[in-house]
């Protein structure tokens, strides 16, 4: 199966690389997810913030995902681990679904391995992407 090209901004790449590096030193609990994230980042196309397409999931993006098996839709914000709060829909980039969606585009189908097999999600829509929204006022 051909690997899809994912896009990551220069700033996100730097922060995520630092996160992976420090987490590898202190945490064995998330090692599998760290390796997956590291693999994703190694294959990513790195672009500047003003060149990232508006339909790509970047850090702090809000997305609408559809579970293709159950038909259920969910809205998540992709955040760094310290900002994660599942009750408020903020999922860590180190969570399996967070690692799975970083850098993908609206319309993409994401296949993600879980202990019970595979889950399939469609990235329905990017509701908010910081780079597309422009600089904060």
Could you describe the 3D structure shown?
With 137 residues, the chain is α/β, with parallel strands linked by helices. The protein has a single domain (7-129), classed as Chitinase A, domain 3, CATH 3.10.50. Helix content is 29%, strand content 29%. It is built from 4 helices and 7 strands; from the N terminus they run βααββββαββα. It has helices at residues 10-26, 31-43, 96-101, 130-133, and strands at 7-9, 45-47, 62-67, 73-79, 90-92, 109-114, 117-128. The strands form 2 sheets. The chain has a 5-stranded mixed beta sheet. A two-stranded parallel ribbon has the order 1-2. The longest helix is centred in the first third of the chain and has 17 residues, at 10-26. It is globular. The N and C termini lie far apart (44 Å).
What's the arrangement of secondary structure elements?
Layout: E1 7-9, H1 10-26, H2 31-43, E2 45-47, E3 62-67, E4 73-79, E5 90-92, H3 96-101, E6 109-114, E7 117-128, H4 130-133
